[in-house]
Design goal:
49% of the residues lie in helices and 18% in strands. By secondary structure, the protein is of the alpha+beta class. The protein has three domains: 6-51, Helicase, Ruva Protein, domain 3; 59-186, 2-Layer Sandwich (Tetrahydropterin Synthase, Chain A), CATH 3.30.479.20; 193-307, no CATH class. The strands form four sheets. The protein has a three-stranded antiparallel beta sheet. Helix 1 (6-16) crosses helix 2 (20-29), helix 3 packs across helix 7 and helix 10 (239-255) packs across helix 11 (263-277). The longest helix is centred in the middle third of the chain and has 24 residues, at 197-220. The mean pLDDT is 90.
Length: 321
């Protein structure tokens, strides 16, 4: 039996992150051969990974990296099973190491097959599954390239990248504010113009059905019923629809006996309310059409325009769960 030195155990532990006892056992099994001991630990990781493949890895760390000239960035999630592991400093450090490597790759497949200390990232995940005893996974990988890329991370749960087509004064502030907006409000697309007609139609029918069902229960309880919108997106508010809405508002004002000379002061506000009531999908999913969280009196599009000649070229959001 080989004489296993404490220094060898410590070296193996530093390289693999495995516990001292696991490292000693691996070295004993490998008869002191360092490379063979690493293989022993890796095989242990494969066994643990196979047993835990069906486990739900819904905890972890969301993290970003931006390159030195702020023209590219990545956002990844290193997922694990428990909050206890996610809060561990060594796990957070591992996530940081993965993010550093990910920054040099354009897609997840390339990243997973890249080198991590002599083994692939995919194999490192398996190795660390054996070390930690929980399923580990890169559950999200996103990349943004643009003239300027900024980011924001909300704790360790949400990470966002925002790409801008131009650099202006205080670009970093603008990019961070927009990334915070995406993190907070969960936009999935840039504008209502990106929506497919069929998607909007199906979503409209589904939302109306939900509200009508809720109203049955509210009516039974004698409570105020929810407004049932005809539309949910600006893409549906054609010139004809807007003209009809204006006519209905004017007819209502007339029936209420409001003098026609003051209609010009009332109609714009009611038209704004009509648009707000009938663009709920846009407000939920479209970044430019949302109210800006730092000043809800303006839209995100209005906030961006205050910086001059700059637009959002793309954005990505990753999160746990």
């Amino acid at each position: 039996m080989a004489d296993i030195k404490a220094a060898d155990v410590a070296t193996l532990r530093k390289q693999t992150g495995a516990g001292m006892m696991d490292c000693k056992v691996a070295l004993v099994e490998a008869n002191g051969d360092f490379d063979a001991a690493i293989d022993v630990l890796r095989k242990k990781g494969q066994k643990v990974a196979a047993k835990r493949a069906d486990r739900n890895a819904s905890e972890g760390v969301a993290i970003t990296r931006i390159n030195s000239d702020s023209t590219a960035g990545i956002a990844i999630v290193l997922a694990c099973e428990t909050d206890f592991v996610a809060k561990n400093d060594s796990f957070k450090n591992l996530a940081g190491q993965f993010a550093d490597i990910a920054l040099n790759h354009t897609n997840k497949d390339s990243f997973m097959s890249s080198d991590f200390g002599g083994i692939t990232v995919a194999d490192k995940l398996i190795e660390q599954t054996g070390v930690i005893g929980e399923k580990l996974d890169i559950s999200s990988f996103e990349r943004v390239e643009a003239n300027y890329v900024g980011s924001y991370t909300h704790g360790v749960k949400i990470a966002v990248l925002v790409g801008l087509n131009n650099s202006v004064d205080n670009t970093d502030i603008l990019a961070k504010d927009l990334a915070m907006q995406v993190a907070s409000m969960g936009a999935t697309t840039l504008s209502y113009k990106d929506f497919d007609d069929e998607f909007v139609t199906n979503e409209t029918e589904a939302r109306i059905a939900v509200i009508e069902k809720d109203n049955i229960e509210l009516g039974r309880l004698g409570k105020t019923l929810k407004n049932v919108p005809k539309y949910i997106s600006m893409s549906q508010l054609t010139d004809e629809v807007m003209s009809e809405a204006k006519s209905e508002i004017e007819a209502q004002l007339q029936s209420e006996g409001k003098p026609e000379q003051i209609w010009d002061k009332i109609v714009p506000g009611k038209m704004d309310r009509f648009i707000s009531d009938n663009t709920t999908l846009d407000q939920e999913q479209c970044l430019l059409d949302q109210n800006f969280i730092k000043d809800e009196s303006k839209s995100v599009a209005d906030y961006i325009s205050s910086y001059g000649d700059v637009n959002v070229s793309s954005f990505k959001r990753v999160s746990l769960g």
